[in-house]
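User: Hey, quick favor. My workstation is busy. Could you predict this chain's structure for me?
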Amino acid sequence: MKYEEVKQALQTLGLKGDVTFKFIKKRFRELSKKYHPDLCEEPSEQCAEKIQELKEAYEILEEYCTNFKFKFTPEEFYSQNPEELVKDHFYGSGPWGRKD
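Assistant: No problem, here it is.
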């Protein structure tokens, strides 16, 4: 898999920035319904082509997400959960700390 394939797949599904796999799946379902041959307002051949493009894009992103190698380091954890860094840094100290 090449980065250009992932980039194109994101564009096909209209995705930008940070997204979760859950959101990718939701977006794929929305667009699949929109271009479903029974519901599509465009000619059926165009709808069938669009559905195929969407399916291929989803499969690329699904493969990328499934095979993604996670780093379970503190740096990676805090980059994904910045609010936890703030909590860990200030918990129990200063005016933000919990008073028992």
